[in-house]
Amino acid sequence: MAAMAAGDEHASSEILRGLARHLNCLNEDNKSTRKRALELIKRETVDKGLSSSVLQELFSALLKPLLKCLSDPMERCRETALTMTTEFIRCVPKPEESLPYLMPCLAQRLGEKETLETAEELRLLAVEMLTLTVEVCGKHLAPYLTDMINILQRTIVDPFPDVRRESCKCTINVAKSLPEHFHMQAESLMKPLMQTIAHQHSRVRVSVVEATGAVIQHSNGKNVDDVLSHLAQRLFDDSPQVRRAVTVVVGDWLLQMKDRYSYFHKLVPLLLTCISDEIPEISCLAADLWKQVGAQWEKENEDDIKDKLDFLLTQPPFYPQGVERPGLGCRELVVRHLGRLVPAISNDITDWLVPTRVRTSQLLSLLLLHAEDHSIQHLQPLLAILYRASTDAERDVVSNSLAAAKLLGTFVPPAVFLKLLLDHVTNLSSSSHPWAPLMVLAAVLGGCSKPLLKPHLQEIANKLAQPDVCQEYQQVVYLEQLLGCVDALLCQSESDCSAVSLQLLQVLVTVQSLCPEPHLSEKALESVQCLCKVQGLDSVKDLYRQHMRQLLDWLSASVNTWSSYSPQRLQLHIIVIQSGEK
């Protein structure tokens, strides 16, 4: 070994003697002379395939001249010096020995307020060299962390996109290599990262999201709130790669961040939103990460949920068909934070941006699927959200909100939701959208099971048949929703509707008498025919024959107050026309 070391030392000495003239030429005023000298030095060292120990000796001798060349006025000289230094760092066995000279030099070139390196391609080479240095030197860089941070603060916002990307890669390496030191200075990187997260190049945005994930993961956790709004905006990014990066980062935080329990209520909605992504790969990735999060939480809190394990593993009756029930841990996470999530949903469901409202309405359905019957304690604000969302101008927002309302009907007992909903149906004087409660009622009824709904049919039908409900408004949209409630009852209760056949017929007659649109009158007549069918009647005339006396009593009770504008006159006309001859 000693002989081999002596041989390597002799070889390096010989090479250095041969390079002495070229090293002297680096101080010449002629730029071509300096350029040629650097190229010859490169040819005799890193290009020659020398052993690592010889290269180590050469690097020790050549480092200072090479670093001096980084400030050479000629761009090609600086490029060659950077390339050689990078190759030495990659090949030598002890690259950390260069740090006392290398890091101050790079900090001066890249980390000052005014960046000295004017060529963007050379700034990229310098940052790539810095990334390599972190990879090969690891913990040896701890004394130079401040220099690293100063450099990255500048290069993350560099005008050249590739420099920004490489800086983000370097940031991730620093965070992982020096976790016990990095957390003390991580906060200083948040501002430049957030300045770059909306960069016009999608690949830069991906890099920034990934770097943000690593910085937060290895920080003291105090900056989570500073980045959440920026990450939430990236959920609407046009680039699927960016949205995928957000999915991975949020999932990683939920699984590994030290203080993750403090941020569950803020991170869970982001990951659940990713489950609704239009790209199947992202949606599946988010769903898989969510399952892992739930399973991990369940394991970590096993003692607290022992009493629930058996009970909550039994699927509720009448669970939506074709829907996979979320795991216990996932459900518990939503239930425990739903009180803090509902106000945020209420705020975002009226956002001026359409994509935000669409994603919020999708998130609402997912939350209610997880919450199951625990949504009862938040029913009042949830209904208020649904009333607003159901009147949205965007069709997707409306359909998603009605899907959420249907889940309420599945999990909340009718006695509970009817107490609120039916009151809202009749108290509409101050509402600019009086049909909204009817629309939500129809959707909720659509999710309710036949056995649970049966005891409440009389109450619902009586409410719908009240004059202040079925005769108060003549707008087409209101009558459509009134008809929708009748159809929901017919669909869900079928033959059970025989008990409320009269009230439903009264509503259908009223809709036909007030509606100026032929297509809606036709739909109402179809509902009349459906009412016949569920009762086993042969024709509409049989239905009228069954209720004629009650219908006439219904109209005659107010005959003394009729005028040419009274709806009862039109109702009588419909009854006479459709009942046929006796």
From TrEMBL:
Pfam families assigned to the protein according to its UniProt record, in alphabetical order: HEAT_DAAF5 (PF24573), TPR_DNAAF5 (PF25757)
List, alphabetically, the Gene3D superfamilies matched: Leucine-rich Repeat Variant (1.25.10.10)
Cellular component terms (Gene Ontology): cytoplasm
| Limits of the Dynein axonemal assembly factor 5 HEAT-repeat domain | 319-514
GO molecular function ontology, one term from the record: dynein intermediate chain binding
Q: Where is the Dynein axonemal assembly factor 5 TPR repeats domain?
A: 25-308
Instruction: From the UniProt record, give one GO term of the biological process aspect.
Output: cilium movement
InterPro entries, per this entry? ARM-like (IPR011989), ARM-type_fold (IPR016024), DAAF5 (IPR052623), HEAT_DAAF5 (IPR056497), TPR_DAAF5 (IPR057978)
PANTHER family linked: DYNEIN ASSEMBLY FACTOR 5, AXONEMAL, DYNEIN AXONEMAL ASSEMBLY FACTOR 5
Name under which the protein is recorded = TOG domain-containing protein
Q: Which organism is it from?
A: Pogonophryne albipinna
